[in-house]
Amino acid sequence: MAIRAxxxxxxxxxxxxxxxxxxxxxxxLLAAPGAWPATGLWWLAALPGAVAxxxxxxxxxxxxxxxxxxAGLPDLLAIAGASAGAALLFATLQQAVxxxxxxxxxxxxxxxxxxxxxxxxxxxLGRLRHARRGPEPEVAPQPVLLVGAGDxxxxxxxxxxxxxxxxxRVMGILSLRSRQAxxxxxGAPILGxxxxxxxxxxxxxxxxxxxxxIVVADAQVPGSALEGLLDAADRHGVPLRRVPRxxxxxxxxxxxxxxxxxxxxxxxxxxxxxxELLDRPQVPLDREGMARLIQGRRVLVTGAGGTIGGELAxxxxxxxxxxxxxxxxxxxxxxxxxxxxRERHGDVIRRAVLADVRDxxxxxxxxxxxxxxxxxxxxxxxxVPMVENDPLEGLQTNALGTxxxxxxxxxxxxxxxxxxxTDKAVNPTSVMGASKRLAExxxxxxDVLARAAGRDGARPNGSGMRCVTVRFxxxxxxxxxxxxxxxxxxxxxxxxxxxxxDMRRYFMTVRExxxxxxxxxxxxxxxxxxxxxxxxEGGIFVLDMGxxxxxxxxxxxxxxxxxxxxxEDVEIRFTGLRPGEKLFEEMFHGQEPPRPTAFEGxxxxxxxxxxxxLVGRAIDEVAAACRGGNPRxxxxxxxxxxxxxxxxxxxxVGKTAP
Length: 658
What we know:
The chain is α/β, with parallel strands linked by helices.
């Protein structure tokens, strides 16, 4: 194929030369009909001169190297420049040699326009020839309604025109802005806005033109709009799909397959996923503050192989730390995140460490070696039923492990430790939730000590470390969460299992959650004028999770997104509450009402605090009971420390959601 390229360029030169010669008599005819040169010698000199002028003007613009099949706006601009230059050179040459000239002084402009029309027409014919080449499709293209009237729609329609046998035909467009209604993109009319999807579909149904698919072509469609669009599509039985990114278009099949008529369309649509429905607009974040906090500092992330820890590691690596230490107890999970960061941020100095946060000697030695300035503590056992089965493991990891990490960080003079907590720590009914609340209490007490030392001007060794606690609910797609479970059950054809029809949970995407965690870290680790005053009293940050979602509604949405019907194609089966679960989670205790902060997406709560030494001794007692294999003593001590702990060990249905 490379050998043929020069011949293609020579062919372009030949065609452009013929058109350059043809443009001269056509321009003369338009400029001054009937006024022709009296001698044929003028033509013998003028036509080669016109060809030479075009070649000279087109050389710097690489006119002969244009690919006619893919000619676009930049190529047409190059043609306009070459045509103007060629006409000017031709006129200058004619005047210089004193040759016959057209009586119309506008001849150079007319010459340029004619030449541009001929050259541009050749490119347009090349594109049309390619678009119409090939056999007629055996199956008529499916009519689709496109969502988004911007670059995404333009790219999608252009991709369809590049298909030899397109399987989709855009019959109309829904825009995100009302001012675009009534206009057209590549001939496809804009029928209304996304909010008017139901009315548009009703009208198309009445006209007998209901689309076979609704295709989302705009990546900026918010989750709330997608959810309304899904409801409207579901009422009319129209599937919802999303356009892939341009870089994910499948390559065409090999030549042998095409000759057999087995070409696979390059444009493969994908389903809309539940994360896109529940995603919210990005909250403005203090990126400069994050860079000041992270850049040039030694950072350590525990639980780096998990969902939250891994995303923390990604976002921290992008901010340019001096060194990033990844700590996890799982070998393969740690290997994966280390490999990913090596590929994406190879310039960041990293160390992947296999360690257990409960191993005090190992953690202290590691911290003495690495001397981190910032610690993000995401390591935890988070699956409620699993921790109910092995409560001693949960207590040691979540409570003792947090104390071990915090104490090791204080000893090396760490600037700040950020502790990732959970909404299950509020009025806990599970060992997992109560263990996280106990860890919250210890981090609160350390933070109160550090702030008090700062106010007094006395900062003994280690007392200056800030402990920033961030509490939030479920993260979509995290390990052990309900969304991956539903996906696996859908792949098997169902049923989707829901514990209770009234169960509700808060959900947030991992990207948004970690961004807000870093925002809270900036606020909590620095002395700022806009810092919430509650932090000096042991206040903790709580992410604004929006409204809770009923799990059964989540299941129905996922079934519909798969193009199936809930309770008809896929069964939803209720299995009953599991030990430690409650119907709905709370972000705040009744005695810690939420208070807004100056930062969107962040709230602050002030739960009760206790003396650090007291909480530390209690954690030691719990850990001793765990090591002694005495769950009754460990849980009894936990209940004394967390009096609101109402252990639902037998999966009894508690109060209903408000």
